[in-house]
Amino acid sequence: MSVAQSQNMTAITIDGGKGPASALRPVQVPMPIPSNDQLLIRVRAAGVNRPDIIQRLGSYPPPPGASDILGLEVAGEVEQAAGWWKAGDKVCALLGGGGYAEYAVCDPRHALPIPAGLSFEQAASLPETVFTVYANVFEHGGLKPGETLLVHGATSGIGVTAIQMAKAAGAKVIATARGAQKAAAARTLGADVAIDAAQQDFAQVAKAEGGADVILDMVGGDYFGKDIDALNRAAGSSSSRRRAGTIRRCRSSRSCRSRRSSPDRPYARAMPTRRRGWRPKSSASCGHGSRPARSSRAAHAYLESGTHTGKVILVTG
């Protein structure tokens, strides 16, 4: 159904404003009306992220002016053009909210073209994780070719993306996950060394491999002390010169909050990402676990279970 034919759309809302995954339900809501400088995107797929869960629980309200519908990343076609985009362009985008719906509005600066060969489902897994990894690993961590990245939570959406981006940048990757099966999955994704953190001391393994120059930590807690121990302390190494900024304690909700509250932050990530060559080789792993939009309850429960590998995607049409 075209925009001209309907003023309503299906979206996923939270019954009662907050609650468990079972509180999610599809309803008819008014379509968003884009301003002259906003894209209107026909959403074909939306990424499911932990900030969505935190918002569903009532602890992560959208910024002023943003949609209170869940969903921070989407892929689809441009319905109403803005900026340098044309109607019909296939894009993936980072949003302030509103992704769990048939249509969403977007700052045109926060959209990226869908790389050739990727489906909407695959592309919807990219914006949040790619921007998060770029900011933490490359911008703040300063990872360079030939250096070593230690990434925890290797089979999470961010972990999967970090492994692939670091390898594409010419770095060595040491990855940790809990359980032999997840460690094996990390190795399949490209990690040079995969550690079952439930059975092995990751700091000792990392040190035996020469130490880490940059550490991406989505776990925190008692991992932090071991992170310090795992750092490369070779005399004159780049890590010894920037150790205070080397460990990126990446909490998805925290790192996303700064981008969600300021429209210029995602733009600052999108432009260097495009300049670096926006051609991900594959996001099939990131898109593992796709769920149809009307199964949003199951998708949230699946993400909360921690049994997934990569991203969980809602398919909207």
Instruction: Look at the structure and give the CATH class of the largest domain.
Output: Alpha Beta
Helix-strand topology string: EEEHEEEEHHEHEHEHEHHEHHEHE
Q: How many strand segments?
A: 14
Number of helices: 11
Biggest beta sheet attributes: 7 strands, mixed
> What's the overall geometry?
globular
Average predicted confidence as pLDDT: 83
Question: What is the SS-derived class?
Answer: alpha/beta
Superfamily (CATH H level) name of the largest domain: Medium-chain alcohol dehydrogenases, catalytic domain
Percent in strands: 15-25%
Enter the CATH topology name of the largest domain: Quinone Oxidoreductase, Chain A, domain 1
Percent range of helical residues: 25-40%
**CATH architecture designation of the largest domain:** Alpha-Beta Complex
* Oligomer category: single chain
Runs with pLDDT <50, length 5+? 239-245, 251-259, 281-285
N/C terminus separation: 11 Å
Would you mind describing this structure in some detail?
Strands 3, 4, 5, 6, 7, 13 and 14 form a seven-stranded mixed β-sheet that branches. The chain is α/β, with parallel strands linked by helices. α3 packs across α10 (264-275). The protein has eleven helices and 14 strands. Residues 239-245, 251-259 and 281-285 have low confidence and may be disordered. The relative contact order is 0.16. It has two domains: 3-126 and 280-315, Alpha-Beta Complex (Quinone Oxidoreductase, Chain A, domain 1), CATH 3.90.180.10; 129-253, NAD(P)-binding Rossmann-like Domain (Rossmann fold).
